[in-house]
Design goal:
about 500 residues, 7 helices, alpha+beta, six-stranded antiparallel beta sheet
């Protein structure tokens, strides 16, 4: 009888498995999986950004690539006989991977202009955005002094301070934890690292602020003077004092704030934002302190310009807001001043366009009745839909109504708003801006009238200055002067 031993075959099988596993590991470290370009310097050993390297292993578990070290960057062994280290691990985000050397080489050539460029953040909270646009989603908030890698220059919408474009460019950047996005260069210090040297830039001591939804509301919205809302709510928009120029315009992409009011206009640069109360923040490097009263209303405390008093507004602005904003701060000249700002349900540009369209329709309605109106006593008045007029033969109205210096042409504006009690008698009110008869005079001469479109003509009633408050017609004159213009035959 023969006894067959099973131990020897089992031992041989296990040995063969070990050899196979060893050979597979050895093969994986020597067989390329692709090529890569370093996006950020490797410090040990020192390999500069932009270097083309072979890639052997990708580990998703450890989030690293095993790359080959080019010979010119390999370190000499400390002892004779020690092996040369020709491979190293780098984080996945630090490599731009390609399956072929041709594609990797093409990228390296394109990237060469930016390979050595880095930037230091000069502003705490500077955002990195998903697209090169102020309104794009924020993907990262930078710390003051943080170093980022510049990958490329990008085309995008210019960063603005109010309505003024700021100098600088949108840059595609890489953060030190692998986030890629776009940052505007206005608040970056761009510098170059010599090939093979580690980044050595002093970091700021400002800590990363916690995510603050209330602060995000402050810096992400567009804020306008509070009397804008009164105008919108009352449907009485005064285009002379309702523009996209006035407001509080913080720009976290650039660290620049523009504050503009009828009697104040200044631009500030801030380094960081410090919380001083539950809903209040100070913009460091400026005198500005902002308090968010609700999601659509904030109070801004600032230092007025030399010679200004407390929160004075233009007469038109005060009237539009029923003087609600006047006298909000201390009255001492040079003291702190507080103004209120609001958000609006629509962009200011859209509201302005709607008001312009409303005025044009009113003028068109008047012109349809004429546009030529002739009076035996008061001359001939011609209105045009382009907003111009001519009026000849108004001598009987000089100088009581029409100034003696007025010419015979000008522009017409339907800028006035009448009370309901007056609307029972008149359709509206208009202003005729007469061009001066003499070239020595500078400003047009404004004369205001109530108007009524009659079946065969146009009735005007002179409005003395005492009847007006801003753009509101408060009352008719106690001694009205009424002008009737029959429509002239076409």
């Amino acid at each position: 009888m023969y006894i067959v031993s099973r131990e020897k075959p089992n031992w041989l099988f296990r040995a063969l498995c070990m050899v196979t596993l060893f050979l597979s590991i050895l093969g994986s470290c020597s067989r390329l999986t692709g090529w890569g370009v370093l996006l950020w310097n490797v410090e040990n050993p020192s390999i500069p950004s932009g270097t083309l390297v072979p890639v052997y292993i990708k580990s998703n578990i450890d989030s690293v690539y095993v790359i080959g070290i080019p010979k010119e960057y390999q370190l000499k062994p400390e002892k004779k006989g020690d092996p040369i280290i020709d491979k190293t691990e780098v984080p996945l985000w630090q490599i731009q991977f390609f399956p072929s050397k041709t594609k990797a080489s093409a990228f390296a050539k394109q990237f060469a202009a930016y390979a050595s460029l880095y930037a230091e953040t000069l502003q705490d909270g500077l955002p990195v955005r998903a697209e090169p646009d102020n309104g794009a989603r924020r993907v990262y908030r930078l710390r003051q002094g943080q170093v980022i890698k510049i990958l490329a220059k990008a085309q995008g919408n210019p960063a603005m301070s109010g309505s003024t474009p700021l100098p600088g460019d949108w840059l595609q950047v890489l953060t030190d934890d692998g986030t890629v996005g776009y940052c505007f260069s206005y608040r970056l210090r761009i510098f170059e690292i010599e090939a093979g040297k580690a980044v050595a830039v002093a970091q700021g001591n400002t800590t990363q602020p916690a995510e603050d939804p209330a602060l995000e509301t402050v810096v992400s919205k567009t804020w306008y003077p509070d009397w804008y809302k009164d105008m919108v709510d009352a449907q009485m928009i005064d285009l002379d004092n309702f523009t996209d120029q006035y407001g509080f315009f913080p720009n976290p992409d650039t660290g620049v704030i523009r504050l503009s009011l009828p009697d104040f206009d200044k631009t500030y640069s801030y380094s960081s934002i410090t919380k001083v109360d539950t809903q209040s923040w100070r913009f460091e490097g400026t005198p500005l302190i902002v308090t968010l009263r609700n999601e659509n209303l904030l109070a801004l405390q600032y230092q007025p310009l030399t010679g200004q008093g407390s929160a004075n507004q233009t007469a038109a602005g005060q009237t539009a807001a029923n003087q609600a904003s006047a006298g909000q701060a201390g009255s001492q000249t040079g003291g702190l001043r507080t103004s209120l700002f609001v958000t609006l349900p629509q962009p200011v540009g859209d509201l302005i366009a709607q008001e312009q369209e409303r005025r044009l329709k009113l003028l068109q309605t008047i012109c349809e009745q004429g546009p030529r109106f002739h009076s035996e006593n008061y001359g001939q008045l011609v209105l045009s839909e382009d907003g111009t007029f001519t009026w000849e033969g108004f001598d009987l109205l000089v100088p009581r109504i029409i100034p003696i210096t007025a010419g015979t042409s000008g522009t017409v504006a339907l800028r006035l708003f009448i009370r309901e009690s007056i609307r029972t008698t008149y359709d509206g009110a208009l202003t005729l801006y007469f061009n001066p008869a003499s070239s020595d005079a500078k400003a047009p001469l404004a004369v205001n009238f109530l108007y009524k479109i009659e079946p065969r003509g146009l009735r005007l009633e002179y409005l003395p200055p005492a009847s007006l408050s801003g753009v509101s017609v408060l009352q008719r004159s106690p001694s009205p002067i009424i002008l009737y213009f029959p429509a002239a035959e076409q």
